[in-house]
User: Which sequence fits this backbone?
Protein backbone atom coordinates (compact mmCIF):
# COMPACT_ATOMS: atom_id res chain seq x y z
CA UNK A 1 0.00 0.00 0.00
CA UNK A 2 1.50 3.32 -1.10
CA UNK A 3 0.40 6.00 1.37
CA UNK A 4 2.25 8.60 -0.65
CA UNK A 5 0.00 7.94 -3.65
CA UNK A 6 -3.08 8.06 -1.45
CA UNK A 7 -2.08 11.47 -0.10
CA UNK A 8 -1.31 12.71 -3.60
CA UNK A 9 -4.73 11.59 -4.85
CA UNK A 10 -6.49 13.23 -1.90
CA UNK A 11 -4.61 16.46 -2.48
CA UNK A 12 -5.25 16.46 -6.21
CA UNK A 13 -8.95 15.54 -6.12
CA UNK A 14 -9.64 18.22 -3.49
CA UNK A 15 -7.58 21.03 -4.99
CA UNK A 16 -7.51 20.43 -8.76
CA UNK A 17 -10.55 18.26 -9.53
CA UNK A 18 -11.00 19.51 -13.09
CA UNK A 19 -7.60 18.21 -14.13
CA UNK A 20 -7.53 15.22 -11.78
CA UNK A 21 -10.79 13.59 -12.87
CA UNK A 22 -9.60 12.86 -16.44
CA UNK A 23 -6.41 11.34 -15.01
CA UNK A 24 -8.31 9.19 -12.51
CA UNK A 25 -10.80 8.06 -15.15
CA UNK A 26 -8.03 6.93 -17.50
CA UNK A 27 -6.10 4.97 -14.88
CA UNK A 28 -6.29 1.16 -15.06
CA UNK A 29 -7.97 -0.14 -11.92
CA UNK A 30 -9.97 -2.95 -10.37
CA UNK A 31 -12.57 -3.09 -7.64
CA UNK A 32 -10.16 -4.90 -5.32
CA UNK A 33 -7.37 -2.48 -6.09
CA UNK A 34 -9.52 0.55 -5.38
CA UNK A 35 -10.57 -0.87 -2.02
CA UNK A 36 -7.12 -2.02 -0.96
CA UNK A 37 -5.26 1.01 -2.30
CA UNK A 38 -7.61 3.85 -1.37
CA UNK A 39 -11.13 3.26 -0.05
CA UNK A 40 -10.14 1.05 2.89
CA UNK A 41 -7.88 3.81 4.21
CA UNK A 42 -9.77 7.04 3.55
CA UNK A 43 -13.22 5.63 4.39
CA UNK A 44 -11.96 4.72 7.85
CA UNK A 45 -11.55 8.38 8.87
CA UNK A 46 -15.22 9.08 9.79
CA UNK A 47 -15.44 5.97 11.99
CA UNK A 48 -12.14 6.71 13.72
CA UNK A 49 -13.11 10.34 14.31
CA UNK A 50 -16.48 9.21 15.65
CA UNK A 51 -14.80 6.85 18.11
CA UNK A 52 -12.40 9.57 19.30
CA UNK A 53 -15.28 12.00 19.79
CA UNK A 54 -17.73 9.54 21.35
CA UNK A 55 -15.50 7.39 23.56
CA UNK A 56 -12.40 9.48 24.23
CA UNK A 57 -13.47 13.14 24.17
CA UNK A 58 -17.18 12.72 24.84
CA UNK A 59 -20.23 14.82 24.11
CA UNK A 60 -20.77 17.80 26.38
CA UNK A 61 -23.94 19.58 27.35
CA UNK A 62 -25.67 21.02 30.38
CA UNK A 63 -22.45 20.74 32.41
CA UNK A 64 -22.12 17.00 31.72
CA UNK A 65 -19.72 15.05 29.51
CA UNK A 66 -21.11 11.79 28.15
CA UNK A 67 -18.84 9.13 26.67
CA UNK A 68 -19.82 5.96 24.89
CA UNK A 69 -18.41 2.96 26.79
CA UNK A 70 -15.08 1.97 25.25
CA UNK A 71 -16.19 -1.51 24.17
CA UNK A 72 -19.37 -0.23 22.56
CA UNK A 73 -17.39 2.58 20.94
CA UNK A 74 -15.02 0.08 19.37
CA UNK A 75 -17.95 -2.04 18.22
CA UNK A 76 -19.72 0.95 16.67
CA UNK A 77 -16.49 2.08 14.99
CA UNK A 78 -15.86 -1.29 13.39
CA UNK A 79 -19.49 -1.79 12.40
CA UNK A 80 -19.77 1.71 10.97
CA UNK A 81 -16.56 1.20 9.02
CA UNK A 82 -17.65 -2.11 7.55
CA UNK A 83 -21.07 -0.73 6.61
CA UNK A 84 -19.47 2.33 4.99
CA UNK A 85 -17.37 0.02 2.80
CA UNK A 86 -20.52 -1.83 1.82
CA UNK A 87 -22.40 1.41 1.23
CA UNK A 88 -19.65 2.68 -1.07
CA UNK A 89 -20.02 -0.38 -3.27
CA UNK A 90 -23.82 -0.34 -3.23
CA UNK A 91 -23.97 3.32 -4.28
CA UNK A 92 -21.45 2.51 -7.03
CA UNK A 93 -23.81 -0.24 -8.22
CA UNK A 94 -26.63 2.30 -8.41
CA UNK A 95 -24.42 4.78 -10.28
CA UNK A 96 -23.52 2.05 -12.77
CA UNK A 97 -27.12 0.93 -13.22
CA UNK A 98 -28.35 4.48 -13.95
CA UNK A 99 -25.56 5.31 -16.40
CA UNK A 100 -27.56 4.54 -19.58
CA UNK A 101 -30.50 6.59 -18.30
CA UNK A 102 -28.27 9.68 -18.30
CA UNK A 103 -26.45 8.98 -21.52
CA UNK A 104 -23.47 7.37 -19.83
CA UNK A 105 -21.63 4.08 -20.23
CA UNK A 106 -21.88 1.26 -17.71
CA UNK A 107 -18.60 0.28 -16.03
CA UNK A 108 -18.61 -0.96 -12.44
CA UNK A 109 -14.97 -0.14 -11.80
CA UNK A 110 -15.42 3.41 -13.08
CA UNK A 111 -18.55 3.77 -10.97
CA UNK A 112 -16.59 2.77 -7.87
CA UNK A 113 -13.89 5.29 -8.78
CA UNK A 114 -16.58 7.95 -9.03
CA UNK A 115 -17.92 7.35 -5.54
CA UNK A 116 -14.53 6.77 -3.91
CA UNK A 117 -12.98 9.99 -5.15
CA UNK A 118 -16.09 12.13 -4.91
CA UNK A 119 -16.66 11.09 -1.29
CA UNK A 120 -13.09 11.98 -0.38
CA UNK A 121 -14.11 15.49 0.67
CA UNK A 122 -16.78 14.18 3.02
CA UNK A 123 -14.50 11.52 4.49
CA UNK A 124 -11.75 14.08 5.14
CA UNK A 125 -14.18 16.68 6.55
CA UNK A 126 -15.51 14.06 8.99
CA UNK A 127 -12.34 14.57 11.00
CA UNK A 128 -13.99 17.82 12.06
CA UNK A 129 -16.49 15.89 14.19
CA UNK A 130 -14.06 16.22 17.08
CA UNK A 131 -14.57 20.02 17.08
CA UNK A 132 -17.17 20.95 19.73
CA UNK A 133 -20.61 21.81 18.32
CA UNK A 134 -19.21 22.75 14.89
CA UNK A 135 -18.42 19.23 13.74
CA UNK A 136 -21.75 18.90 11.96
CA UNK A 137 -21.15 22.17 10.12
CA UNK A 138 -17.78 20.99 8.85
CA UNK A 139 -19.43 17.73 7.82
CA UNK A 140 -22.01 19.69 5.80
CA UNK A 141 -19.21 21.57 4.04
CA UNK A 142 -17.48 18.31 3.18
CA UNK A 143 -20.74 16.83 1.92
CA UNK A 144 -21.39 19.84 -0.29
CA UNK A 145 -17.91 19.69 -1.78
CA UNK A 146 -18.38 15.96 -2.43
CA UNK A 147 -21.51 16.79 -4.41
CA UNK A 148 -19.48 19.19 -6.50
CA UNK A 149 -16.75 16.58 -7.05
CA UNK A 150 -19.37 14.04 -8.08
CA UNK A 151 -20.89 16.51 -10.52
CA UNK A 152 -17.51 17.11 -12.14
CA UNK A 153 -16.49 13.45 -12.21
CA UNK A 154 -19.48 11.78 -13.84
CA UNK A 155 -18.68 13.21 -17.27
CA UNK A 156 -15.24 11.60 -17.18
CA UNK A 157 -15.77 8.29 -15.42
CA UNK A 158 -19.24 7.34 -16.65
CA UNK A 159 -19.07 9.29 -19.95
CA UNK A 160 -22.20 11.19 -19.00
CA UNK A 161 -23.01 14.26 -21.17
CA UNK A 162 -22.38 17.36 -19.04
CA UNK A 163 -25.91 18.62 -19.59
CA UNK A 164 -27.23 15.49 -17.84
CA UNK A 165 -24.70 15.49 -15.01
CA UNK A 166 -26.93 17.50 -12.64
CA UNK A 167 -29.77 14.97 -12.78
CA UNK A 168 -27.35 12.06 -12.49
CA UNK A 169 -25.77 13.71 -9.47
CA UNK A 170 -29.14 14.35 -7.83
CA UNK A 171 -30.20 10.70 -8.12
CA UNK A 172 -26.88 9.53 -6.68
CA UNK A 173 -27.11 11.95 -3.74
CA UNK A 174 -30.65 10.82 -2.89
CA UNK A 175 -29.51 7.17 -2.85
CA UNK A 176 -26.54 8.08 -0.64
CA UNK A 177 -28.80 9.93 1.81
CA UNK A 178 -31.17 6.99 2.15
CA UNK A 179 -28.38 4.44 2.61
CA UNK A 180 -26.57 6.73 5.04
CA UNK A 181 -29.73 7.03 7.10
CA UNK A 182 -30.13 3.24 7.19
CA UNK A 183 -26.51 2.77 8.26
CA UNK A 184 -26.98 5.40 10.95
CA UNK A 185 -29.96 3.47 12.30
CA UNK A 186 -27.97 0.23 12.40
CA UNK A 187 -24.96 1.76 14.17
CA UNK A 188 -27.14 3.76 16.55
CA UNK A 189 -29.05 0.59 17.40
CA UNK A 190 -25.80 -1.07 18.43
CA UNK A 191 -24.70 1.72 20.79
CA UNK A 192 -28.21 2.54 21.97
CA UNK A 193 -28.21 6.20 20.95
CA UNK A 194 -30.44 8.30 18.75
CA UNK A 195 -30.32 7.46 15.07
CA UNK A 196 -28.09 9.46 12.81
CA UNK A 197 -29.33 10.80 9.50
CA UNK A 198 -27.86 11.71 6.18
CA UNK A 199 -28.87 15.33 6.63
CA UNK A 200 -25.37 16.57 5.99
CA UNK A 201 -26.01 16.16 2.30
CA UNK A 202 -29.73 16.97 2.17
CA UNK A 203 -31.50 20.07 0.99
CA UNK A 204 -28.87 20.90 -1.63
CA UNK A 205 -29.89 22.28 -5.01
CA UNK A 206 -27.71 21.02 -7.84
CA UNK A 207 -27.56 22.99 -11.08
CA UNK A 208 -25.26 23.32 -14.04
CA UNK A 209 -25.13 24.31 -17.67
CA UNK A 210 -24.22 22.63 -20.91
CA UNK A 211 -20.66 22.01 -22.00
CA UNK A 212 -18.49 19.39 -23.69
CA UNK A 213 -16.98 16.22 -22.27
CA UNK A 214 -13.70 17.90 -21.38
CA UNK A 215 -15.12 20.85 -19.52
CA UNK A 216 -18.10 21.50 -17.25
CA UNK A 217 -19.53 25.01 -17.25
CA UNK A 218 -21.21 26.19 -14.07
CA UNK A 219 -23.08 29.36 -13.20
CA UNK A 220 -20.64 31.35 -11.06
CA UNK A 221 -23.50 32.61 -8.87
CA UNK A 222 -24.79 29.12 -8.06
CA UNK A 223 -23.70 27.02 -5.09
CA UNK A 224 -21.68 24.78 -7.40
CA UNK A 225 -20.15 27.84 -9.04
CA UNK A 226 -18.89 29.09 -5.71
CA UNK A 227 -17.48 25.67 -4.94
CA UNK A 228 -15.77 25.64 -8.33
CA UNK A 229 -14.11 28.95 -7.52
CA UNK A 230 -12.97 27.51 -4.21
CA UNK A 231 -11.41 24.57 -6.03
CA UNK A 232 -9.58 26.86 -8.44
CA UNK A 233 -8.16 28.89 -5.56
CA UNK A 234 -6.71 25.71 -4.15
CA UNK A 235 -4.59 25.00 -7.22
CA UNK A 236 -1.89 27.54 -6.34
CA UNK A 237 -1.73 26.25 -2.76
CA UNK A 238 -1.32 22.74 -4.14
CA UNK A 239 1.70 23.82 -6.17
CA UNK A 240 3.28 25.31 -3.05
CA UNK A 241 2.72 22.04 -1.21
CA UNK A 242 4.43 20.15 -4.03
CA UNK A 243 7.47 22.40 -3.75
CA UNK A 244 7.56 22.05 0.04
CA UNK A 245 7.39 18.26 -0.16
CA UNK A 246 10.29 18.17 -2.62
CA UNK A 247 12.38 20.43 -0.38
CA UNK A 248 12.13 18.04 2.57
CA UNK A 249 11.63 21.00 4.94
CA UNK A 250 9.05 19.85 7.51
CA UNK A 251 8.27 23.43 8.58
CA UNK A 252 7.64 24.45 4.98
CA UNK A 253 5.49 21.37 4.45
CA UNK A 254 3.37 22.19 7.49
CA UNK A 255 2.92 25.79 6.35
CA UNK A 256 2.06 24.71 2.81
CA UNK A 257 -0.46 22.16 4.10
CA UNK A 258 -2.11 24.91 6.11
CA UNK A 259 -2.36 27.09 3.02
CA UNK A 260 -3.78 24.26 0.95
CA UNK A 261 -6.39 23.36 3.56
CA UNK A 262 -7.21 27.04 3.85
CA UNK A 263 -7.78 27.22 0.12
CA UNK A 264 -9.92 24.09 0.11
CA UNK A 265 -11.96 25.41 3.04
CA UNK A 266 -12.53 28.71 1.28
CA UNK A 267 -10.28 30.93 3.41
CA UNK A 268 -7.74 31.28 0.56
CA UNK A 269 -4.91 31.16 3.09
CA UNK A 270 -3.75 29.65 6.34
CA UNK A 271 -5.21 30.86 9.63
CA UNK A 272 -3.43 30.94 12.97
CA UNK A 273 -6.01 30.45 15.71
CA UNK A 274 -5.88 32.64 18.81
CA UNK A 275 -3.32 31.57 21.39
CA UNK A 276 -4.70 29.88 24.55
CA UNK A 277 -3.77 32.84 26.78
CA UNK A 278 -5.49 35.20 24.37
CA UNK A 279 -8.78 33.35 23.95
CA UNK A 280 -8.96 32.63 27.68
CA UNK A 281 -9.25 36.35 28.46
CA UNK A 282 -12.76 36.42 26.98
CA UNK A 283 -14.14 34.28 29.82
CA UNK A 284 -15.35 36.44 32.76
CA UNK A 285 -14.56 35.79 36.43
CA UNK A 286 -18.23 35.38 37.26
CA UNK A 287 -21.71 35.14 35.77
CA UNK A 288 -23.90 37.10 38.14
CA UNK A 289 -24.12 35.00 41.32
CA UNK A 290 -22.20 32.14 39.72
CA UNK A 291 -18.47 32.14 40.42
CA UNK A 292 -15.91 30.67 38.11
CA UNK A 293 -14.58 27.41 39.55
CA UNK A 294 -12.25 26.32 36.74
CA UNK A 295 -10.86 27.51 33.41
CA UNK A 296 -8.82 25.91 30.66
CA UNK A 297 -7.65 26.70 27.14
CA UNK A 298 -5.85 24.88 24.38
CA UNK A 299 -4.84 25.17 20.74
CA UNK A 300 -4.64 22.11 18.51
CA UNK A 301 -3.44 21.57 14.97
CA UNK A 302 -4.32 18.85 12.48
CA UNK A 303 -4.02 18.62 8.68
CA UNK A 304 -2.44 22.08 8.67
CA UNK A 305 -5.42 23.69 10.42
CA UNK A 306 -5.44 25.22 13.90
CA UNK A 307 -8.40 25.36 16.29
CA UNK A 308 -8.33 26.88 19.77
CA UNK A 309 -10.85 26.59 22.59
CA UNK A 310 -11.32 28.03 26.07
CA UNK A 311 -13.79 26.68 28.61
CA UNK A 312 -14.85 27.75 32.09
CA UNK A 313 -17.17 26.27 34.72
CA UNK A 314 -19.43 28.46 36.91
CA UNK A 315 -21.60 27.49 39.89
CA UNK A 316 -23.28 28.83 43.02
CA UNK A 317 -24.71 27.55 46.30
CA UNK A 318 -28.10 26.96 44.66
CA UNK A 319 -26.67 24.10 42.58
CA UNK A 320 -26.84 26.10 39.40
CA UNK A 321 -24.06 25.23 36.99
CA UNK A 322 -23.10 26.80 33.64
CA UNK A 323 -20.30 25.92 31.25
CA UNK A 324 -19.13 28.74 28.98
CA UNK A 325 -17.06 27.92 25.87
CA UNK A 326 -15.32 30.19 23.38
CA UNK A 327 -13.96 28.49 20.24
CA UNK A 328 -11.83 29.88 17.45
CA UNK A 329 -12.30 27.60 14.44
CA UNK A 330 -9.15 29.07 12.92
CA UNK A 331 -8.16 27.09 9.84
CA UNK A 332 -11.63 25.57 9.61
CA UNK A 333 -13.37 28.95 9.44
CA UNK A 334 -13.91 28.65 5.70
CA UNK A 335 -15.82 25.40 6.19
CA UNK A 336 -17.78 27.01 9.01
CA UNK A 337 -18.67 30.04 6.91
CA UNK A 338 -19.94 27.93 4.03
CA UNK A 339 -21.78 25.49 6.26
CA UNK A 340 -23.34 28.21 8.40
CA UNK A 341 -24.67 29.88 5.27
CA UNK A 342 -26.38 26.63 4.29
CA UNK A 343 -27.63 25.65 7.75
CA UNK A 344 -31.43 25.43 7.86
CA UNK A 345 -33.47 27.57 10.25
CA UNK A 346 -35.55 25.34 12.51
CA UNK A 347 -38.03 25.85 15.31
CA UNK A 348 -39.21 22.78 17.23
CA UNK A 349 -41.48 22.88 20.28
CA UNK A 350 -42.60 20.22 22.75
CA UNK A 351 -44.79 20.33 25.82
CA UNK A 352 -41.68 20.87 27.97
CA UNK A 353 -39.35 23.00 25.86
CA UNK A 354 -38.06 23.99 22.45
CA UNK A 355 -35.07 23.75 20.11
CA UNK A 356 -34.44 26.60 17.70
CA UNK A 357 -31.82 27.54 15.10
CA UNK A 358 -32.07 30.98 13.52
CA UNK A 359 -30.08 34.01 12.39
CA UNK A 360 -29.66 37.20 14.39
CA UNK A 361 -27.83 40.18 12.82
CA UNK A 362 -26.24 37.82 10.32
CA UNK A 363 -24.97 35.40 12.98
CA UNK A 364 -26.16 31.81 13.33
CA UNK A 365 -27.79 31.20 16.73
CA UNK A 366 -28.87 27.96 18.35
CA UNK A 367 -30.93 27.77 21.54
CA UNK A 368 -32.63 24.94 23.37
CA UNK A 369 -34.49 24.85 26.68
CA UNK A 370 -36.11 22.12 28.77
CA UNK A 371 -38.61 23.45 31.32
CA UNK A 372 -38.66 20.18 33.29
CA UNK A 373 -34.93 19.96 33.97
CA UNK A 374 -34.49 23.75 33.73
CA UNK A 375 -31.46 23.25 31.56
CA UNK A 376 -30.49 24.26 28.07
CA UNK A 377 -28.00 25.70 25.63
CA UNK A 378 -27.47 29.02 23.91
CA UNK A 379 -24.74 29.47 21.29
CA UNK A 380 -23.80 31.91 18.55
CA UNK A 381 -21.37 31.91 15.61
CA UNK A 382 -19.55 35.23 15.26
CA UNK A 383 -17.81 36.53 12.17
CA UNK A 384 -18.22 33.09 10.59
CA UNK A 385 -15.26 32.01 12.72
CA UNK A 386 -15.83 32.15 16.50
CA UNK A 387 -18.45 30.37 18.57
CA UNK A 388 -19.60 31.23 22.07
CA UNK A 389 -21.75 28.66 23.87
CA UNK A 390 -23.35 28.50 27.31
CA UNK A 391 -24.86 25.26 28.60
CA UNK A 392 -26.18 24.11 31.95
CA UNK A 393 -29.02 24.42 34.42
CA UNK A 394 -30.30 27.92 35.14
CA UNK A 395 -33.38 29.95 36.02
CA UNK A 396 -34.27 30.35 32.35
CA UNK A 397 -32.82 30.50 28.86
CA UNK A 398 -32.32 34.22 29.49
CA UNK A 399 -29.64 33.41 32.05
CA UNK A 400 -27.75 31.42 29.41
CA UNK A 401 -28.16 34.27 26.94
CA UNK A 402 -26.74 36.64 29.55
CA UNK A 403 -23.80 34.28 30.04
CA UNK A 404 -23.00 34.47 26.33
CA UNK A 405 -23.47 38.26 26.39
CA UNK A 406 -20.94 38.49 29.25
CA UNK A 407 -18.27 37.72 26.66
CA UNK A 408 -17.10 40.79 24.75
CA UNK A 409 -18.79 39.63 21.56
CA UNK A 410 -18.08 42.75 19.52
CA UNK A 411 -14.36 42.55 20.30
CA UNK A 412 -14.27 38.85 19.50
CA UNK A 413 -16.08 39.37 16.21
CA UNK A 414 -13.71 42.20 15.29
CA UNK A 415 -10.87 39.66 15.40
CA UNK A 416 -12.33 37.51 12.62
CA UNK A 417 -9.35 38.29 10.38
CA UNK A 418 -6.70 37.87 13.09
CA UNK A 419 -3.97 35.44 12.06
CA UNK A 420 -5.25 35.12 8.49
CA UNK A 421 -2.40 34.82 6.01
CA UNK A 422 -3.21 35.13 2.32
CA UNK A 423 -1.71 32.62 -0.08
Assistant:
Amino acid sequence: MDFGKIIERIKAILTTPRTEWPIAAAEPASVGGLYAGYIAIVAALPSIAGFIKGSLIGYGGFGITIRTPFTLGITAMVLGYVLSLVMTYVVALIVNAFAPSFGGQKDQTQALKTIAYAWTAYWIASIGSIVPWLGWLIGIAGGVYSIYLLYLGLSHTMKCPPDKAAGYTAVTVVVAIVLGWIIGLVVAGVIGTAALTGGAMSGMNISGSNGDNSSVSIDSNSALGKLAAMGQQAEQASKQLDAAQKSGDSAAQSAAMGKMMGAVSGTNGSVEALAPDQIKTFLPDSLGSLKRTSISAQRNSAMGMQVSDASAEYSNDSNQHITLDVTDTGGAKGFVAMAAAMAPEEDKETDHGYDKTHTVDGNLVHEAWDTQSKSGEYSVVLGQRFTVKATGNADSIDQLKQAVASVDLSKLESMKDAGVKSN
